[in-house]
Amino acid sequence: MQEPMYIKIHNQIKKDIENKKYAVGERIPAERQLATEFKVSRMTLRQAIKTLEDEGILERRLGSGTYVASQKVQEKMSGIMSFTEITRSNGQIPSSKVISYRVTKPSLSEKEKLRLKDGENVLRMERVRSADNVPICYEVAAIPYNLVKEFSKEEISTSLYQTIQHKGGYSLGNVIENIGAAVASEVDARRLSVRKGEALVTRRQVTKLSDGTPFEYVRASYVAERFEFTFAK
Description:
It contains eight helices and nine strands. It is of the alpha+beta class. The protein has two domains: 5-68, Orthogonal Bundle (Arc Repressor Mutant, subunit A); 75-226, Chorismate lyase. The protein has a seven-stranded antiparallel β-sheet. A hairpin with a 3-residue loop joins strand 1 and strand 2 (65-68). It is globular, with a radius of gyration of 18 Å. The relative contact order is 0.13.
């Protein structure tokens, strides 16, 4: 199974950052220069950069460029509720539009977050989640394929947590979430029916089973004026 080019670029840039080629707070080369170095189109290069931004590794500064992100304060939260459960608890009707659903090689970040061994694949699912037919967030979820290979696409995309518990016999553990901020790109604007430059809340989440095994890594962008995070202590 061939790895997409944008994932290869993502992995190489991440390695460069880990190897101190680019320091925290340092501006990386412009997209045109990187596209030339990797011998790809700017669209492919931009997809790799956007993935790194979604993961909190890079951050785009309007009118300035793209920089290696500083480490942000991480808030650990306990208690797991799916988007479906949250939406229904607010008296709204949840729905999802699956953009992409495939078994593939994990990116470096997915491999690290999910503690995968060499050769293990992930099920990567891209969705737009809505409440009362209003787009709320765009998310990319990576799940160890071996954990869910016996389940149908409908079971996984409709209610992963219930499927894991009721059909898989697993118990859910805790979740670690990292919250940040961003502005909507042209692609975000089309996906979420917002204006380019509108405020987004970004979330990176690792959800674990009761034995501490990570089973889901999610990167999501929420429309700030349509969704609110509440932290309870």
